[in-house]
Structure formats: structure tokens, C-alpha cells
């Protein structure tokens, strides 16, 4: 458990540095304002120049001082929202959703190609995980591939739908956590909520299929290139994979919360920061577990499960922190950050968009 203590200690130190006694309280539910007769120009006229980025129409227009305030509030808000506990719940339900998601992925891929091919590619994609977690993923993929028939039957269709439905439960828990990060209260019906969760789950499966294609097909296409060409192509391939992760997170941040959807430009910063933190954090976590951790001695046969859960916890925490950053970025400006025609505060259908930092 040494890695957990070290990570939590680091987070506490960062929070102490970022917190300031004179900082404006981060959580500001949209006040009950009457928007009738209020024009968008009124919000622009009353935007306080003391707040850096108060008139920003995009994240790029927020100055460095404004982003420093956003990051400070994001860490404070993550503490107020108990993101560390939320991440634990998301990681647990995500772990339960992994096997159904793999079943759906291998079954769909097996209709057009050899399921063993996707298994080998997923194992190569999991190379960034610690060795104990890699073996866990490999064993589960092997079981799924063995059970896959590779032909389209009524039973296969039913099993795929059942697997997607089961996996969407994990997605639904992630949606609830992102709702909290955006200070929203869930008001969607059960059917609509499940439908959105299914759509996001299916999108995640498609994302993995595209990632597998980039990893599996690219080496064949690169055989005819020289050494320099192969190096450049490999860099481009991994840049595309990172771009897919950023895009996937942006879609989740935009669709998951129960609010008027923000413009894509206002979900991009948190997506980029979360992706960078996830890549770096996963590499450092894998290095620590492989070289300094003693999970095999402590947990024995359960070491792979424990390490994989810890990695899912780290991933969930970073994803929710990205949502907090996006939320506070919207809170920094008085301009309308939601899609569609600009609306005055109080009628934008989003807690963070309907309020702004006071000077």
C-alpha cells in the first residue's frame, strides 16, 4: 500500500500549496435569478475586470493568472466533492464492467477478423500496466477469445447486448460522478440515463476497435518504409491514439452531466490535462509497482487484481479532476459557455455557466 500513501501525501501537499484563505469559495450554485428582460450585453458590461478571464469567450482568452485560479479552485472543489471517494466507486464499478466490455469487444471484432488478433493487440496496448495487472488482463482476454464463436448468431447478438448493458452500469456511475463535479443534480429519467450510458459504452468499444486497428494494422503498412519513415509513422500513430483519448474524454465531459451541453472548447482543457496526467501517472505507477512495490508478497494471488484496481482508481481520479478543471474554467467567465445562441445568466441550464467568480 506504499504507493497509495505516497500518492495521497502528494495530493495533500499540492492542496496545501494551492489553497489560500482569501480565495473565493469554489462552490457557487446558480442563484435564483430572474432572466426576463436581461440581455447578454448586460453580463458583458458587468463583468468584473478584477477577475482575469471574466469576459473570456474561450479558454484561450483566459490569462495565465486566471488559469492559476482555476487550477487552485479545481483542487479545492475536488476535496469538497470527495473526488477521492467518488473515484474509488467509479474504479470498483469500472472493474466489474471490464469483462462484459471485453466480451462485447471481442465478439464484435470476431465478426470481421480473428478474435485472437484483437486479443494480442489488446495485450500489447496493456504493456503500460504493471506486470501483475498485465497477466490479469491477458488471462481474461484468453477466456473471452476461447468462448467466442466468430459467427453471427441470435445467441451472439443477445450476448453482445447483455454485455453492453452490463458494462453500461459502470459508465452510469462515471456519469453520476461527473455530474457532481459539475455541481449538477441528476434529473434524467431511468430510460434516458441508461440510453446515454449505453451510447457512451458503445462509443468506448468503438474507440478500442479504432485503437486496435491503429496498433495492429500500422505495422503491416510500415513494413515498406525505411527506418526514418517507420519512426515518424510510429510517432504519428501514438499521437493519434492520444488524440483519440482526448476526444473521448471531451465527449464524456460534454454528454455525461445533466445540463445544457458546454461547447467543445470548454471541455478541451480538462481533457488535455487529464490525458497528460493519465499517461505520466500510469507510467510512474507501473514503474513503482514493477521496481519498488511488494504487492505479490502482501496479496499473493490477489496481487494482479489489487494492482489493476489501483490503476483504475488512479485513472478515475484523473478523469474526475479533468471534469473539475472544465467546471471551474466555465465558472471563471461570465460569458455563455453552453451551445447555441448566447443566453443571459440564470437561463443557461447549467450551474457553472449560470454563475461566475466574484471579484
From TrEMBL:
State the InterPro entries in the record. Answer: Virul_fac_BrkB
Task: Report which superkingdom the organism of origin falls in.
Answer: Bacteria
Among Pfam families, the record links this protein to: Virul_fac_BrkB
Q: Does the keyword Transmembrane apply?
A: yes
**What are the transmembrane regions?**
85-112, 195-222, 234-255, 267-289, 301-323
Q: Where are stretches of biased composition, namely Low complexity?
A: 35-50
Protein name as annotated: YihY/virulence factor BrkB family protein
Species the sequence originates in:
Actinomycetospora rhizophila
What is the organism lineage in this UniProt record?
A: Bacteria, Bacillati, Actinomycetota, Actinomycetes, Pseudonocardiales
Amino acid at each position: 500500500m506504499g504507493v497509495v500513501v505516497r500518492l495521497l501525501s502528494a495530493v495533500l501537499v499540492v492542496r496545501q500549496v494551492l489553497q489560500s484563505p482569501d480565495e473565493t469559495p469554489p462552490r457557487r450554485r446558480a442563484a435564483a435569478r430572474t432572466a426576463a428582460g436581461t440581455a447578454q450585453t448586460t453580463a458583458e458590461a458587468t463583468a468584473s475586470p478584477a477577475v482575469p478571464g471574466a469576459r473570456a469567450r474561450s479558454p484561450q482568452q483566459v490569462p495565465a493568472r486566471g488559469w492559476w485560479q482555476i487550477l487552485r479552485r479545481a483542487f479545492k472543489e475536488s476535496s469538497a466533492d470527495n473526488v477521492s471517494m467518488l473515484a474509488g466507486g467509479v474504479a470498483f464499478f469500472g472493474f466489474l464492467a471490464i469483462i462484459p466490455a471485453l466480451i462485447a469487444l471481442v465478439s464484435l471484432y470476431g465478426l470481421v477478423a480473428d478474435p485472437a488478433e484483437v486479443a494480442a493487440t489488446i495485450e500489447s496496448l496493456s504493456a503500460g500496466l504493471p506486470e501483475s495487472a498485465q497477466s490479469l488482463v491477458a488471462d481474461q482476454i484468453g477466456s473471452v477469445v476461447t468462448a467466442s464463436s466468430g459467427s453471427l448468431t441470435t445467441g451472439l447478438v443477445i450476448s453482445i447486448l447483455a454485455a453492453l448493458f452490463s458494462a453500461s452500469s459502470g459508465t452510469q456511475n462515471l456519469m453520476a460522478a461527473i455530474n457532481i463535479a459539475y455541481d449538477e443534480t441528476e434529473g434524467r429519467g431511468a430510460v434516458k440515463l441508461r440510453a446515454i450510458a449505453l451510447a457512451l459504452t458503445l462509443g468506448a468499444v468503438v474507440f478500442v476497435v479504432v485503437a486496435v486497428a491503429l496498433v495492429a494494422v500500422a505495422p503491416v503498412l510500415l513494413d515498406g518504409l525505411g527506418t526514418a519513415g517507420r519512426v515518424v509513422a510510429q510517432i504519428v500513430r501514438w499521437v493519434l491514439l492520444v488524440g483519440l483519448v482526448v476526444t473521448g474524454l471531451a465527449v464524456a465531459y460534454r454528454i455525461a452531466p445533466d445540463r445544457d451541453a458546454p461547447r467543445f472548447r470548454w471541455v478541451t482543457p480538462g481533457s488535455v490535462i487529464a490525458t497528460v496526467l493519465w499517461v505520466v501517472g500510469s507510467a510512474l505507477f507501473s514503474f513503482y509497482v514493477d521496481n519498488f512495490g511488494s504487492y505479490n508478497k502482501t496479496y499473493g494471488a490477489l496481487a494482479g487484481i489489487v494492482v489493476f484496481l489501483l490503476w483504475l482508481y488512479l485513472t478515475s481520479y484523473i478523469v474526475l479532476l479533468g471534469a473539475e478543471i472544465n467546471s471551474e474554467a466555465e465558472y471563471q467567465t461570465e460569458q455563455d459557455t453552453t451551445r447555441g445562441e448566447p443566453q443571459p445568466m440564470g437561463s443557461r441550464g447549467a450551474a457553472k455557466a449560470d454563475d461566475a467568480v466574484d471579484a
